[in-house]
Amino acid sequence: MKKKYRCFALFSGGLDSMLSVLYMSKLGYKVLPIFFKSLFFGPESALKAAEQIGFELIVHDISEKHLEMLKNPRYGFGKNMNPCIDCHGLMFKEAASLMKKYNIDFIISGEVVGQRPMSQRRDALNAVGKLSDNKDLLIRPLSQKLLTDTIPVREGWVNKEDMLDIQGRGRHRQIEMAREFGITYYQNPGGGCLLTDVGYSRRLRDLMYHDMLNISFIEFLKLGRHFRINDNLKIIVGRNEKDNDALTNLAVNEIVLQAKDFPGPIAVLNSMIQPAEEEIKIAASLLLRYCNKAPETSNVIYGTKFQLHQTVEVKKMSPAKVEEFLI
Ligand code: SF4
């Protein structure tokens, strides 16, 4: 009996990854979609996409390794803080390290030659393979006919004639395939990765520049308005109730501030060292600017989230000054 080869499919939840899974599965391979989550992208929409095509998704956490890579990506960043070539390379490498555990023969992905400006040029696909240390195990079913043969083709596990020759930015062939496979909903490529967001990237760059790139500070980047008071100190001000709750939940040892007698947002300090009283006053004055009902001079309470036991009296910061601190 012919062996049923098993492959991992790097699965983003985008249309191309769904198609590569279904296409290889239709050819008779046992396909195991795998998603790598990090601090910047979660598995929610990939889980939905996998469910839609009737596959169980393996979710594997690469947060720490991804953060290390982000500090110095060999192939640099895309339009924002997205190091897509290195990111794909890391995912392939991780997938390769899990092959034995899942009894896998090779790895596939939905990458298409020339589709995306940064990560899917032909030289970029080669770079991804090189970074993964396992480029000879990779198959891109949607474009493999146009690519150099790898072990699965050379060994006859994959028939090159069965592979496709899709290239370029046009999507009509993929849309046609989606129709044939009965896929009714799919997300945009790259959607859901915070590193492709302009505002988020600006805040992340600021953290990096100030040597504050740790997991805890990164978690705060998703919430509120961010201001840099000085090289060591940031203040994050909630924009709405949801932000305020999330900021409070996330704060552990951080200093939390709130106007004393008036409704208004919560603020959290992110600091590399214990902030001085003068610095706390600046932060309190900034926060007060967002408390519409508070008079020009008011009390702000602060402390840890369980005990806002200290008080400072400050004047509202001028809007121009607030703007200066905005990241
Ligand atoms: S968009 Fe984000 S998740 Fe996708 S390859 Fe680029 S950095 Fe990685």
Describe the 3D structure.
It is a single chain. By secondary structure, the chain is an alpha/beta fold. The chain has 2 domains: 188 residues, HUPs (Rossmann fold, 3-Layer(aba) Sandwich), CATH 3.40.50.620; 129 residues, no CATH class. Helix content is 37%, strand content 18%. It has 13 helices and 11 strands. It has a 6-stranded antiparallel beta sheet, with helices on both faces. A 5-stranded parallel beta sheet has the order 3-2-1-4-5, sandwiched between helices. Strand 4, helix 6 and strand 5 form a beta-alpha-beta unit. Helix 4 crosses helix 6. The longest helix has 14 residues. The protein is elongated. The model has no long low-confidence stretch (mean pLDDT 92). The site of iron/sulfur cluster has 11 residues, from helix 4.
In which order are the strands of the major sheet placed?
Answer: 6-7-9-8-10-11
The share of residues in helices is 25-40%
Low-confidence stretches: none
Termini gap: 63 Å
In short:
It is built from 13 helices and eleven strands. The protein has helices spanning 15-26, 44-52, 63-71, 84-97, 99-102, 122-132, 151-154, 172-181, 198-209, 215-220, 241-250, 277-289, 319-325, and strands spanning 6-10, 30-37, 58-61, 106-109, 138-139, 225-230, 233-237, 256-259, 267-271, 297-304, 307-315.
Helix/strand layout:
Layout lengths: L5 E5 L4 H12 L3 E8 L6 H9 L5 E4 L1 H9 L12 H14 L1 H4 L3 E4 L12 H11 L5 E2 L11 H4 L17 H10 L16 H12 L5 H6 L4 E6 L2 E5 L3 H10 L5 E4 L7 E5 L5 H13 L7 E8 L2 E9 L3 H7 L2
Parallel strand pairs: 1-2, 1-4, 2-3, 4-5
Antiparallel strand pairs: 6-7, 7-9, 8-9, 8-10, 10-11
Helix pairs in contact: 1-8, 4-6
The structure holds iron/sulfur cluster (SF4).
Iron/sulfur cluster binds next to helix 4.
